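2.7 Reproducibility. Because tokenized structures are sensitive to small changes in the input, we list the exact sequence used for DNA methyltransferase, including any N-terminal residues retained from the expression construct. No trimming or masking was applied before prediction.
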Amino acid sequence: MDEELHERVREVVATVPPGKVATYGDIAAIAGAPSPRMIGRILSEDGADLPWHRVLRANGTPAPHLVHRQLELLRAEGVLADGQKVNLKTYRWRP
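Resulting structure tokens (single pass, no recycling of outputs):
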């Protein structure tokens, strides 16, 4: 993966505002990444300083291994989930 794409992804994730969420696919489309999976990889390797918790799967759910922490962080920003699913129609970020 090229460094320029890596930095674009980081920049896009950093701009998702508190109280909003985006999907991995949203971030990939904005950053010009070839795959939503690449976004997850970048965040897992180099996203600790980013609002990674604002990025969800296409169905509005967190990654299974992050679900409790991610929903806790989102709830603190006013993003409420129904069970483990965030309503994308309500909370999706539209830049």
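The helical segments are 3-15, 24-31, 36-46, 67-76, 88-91.
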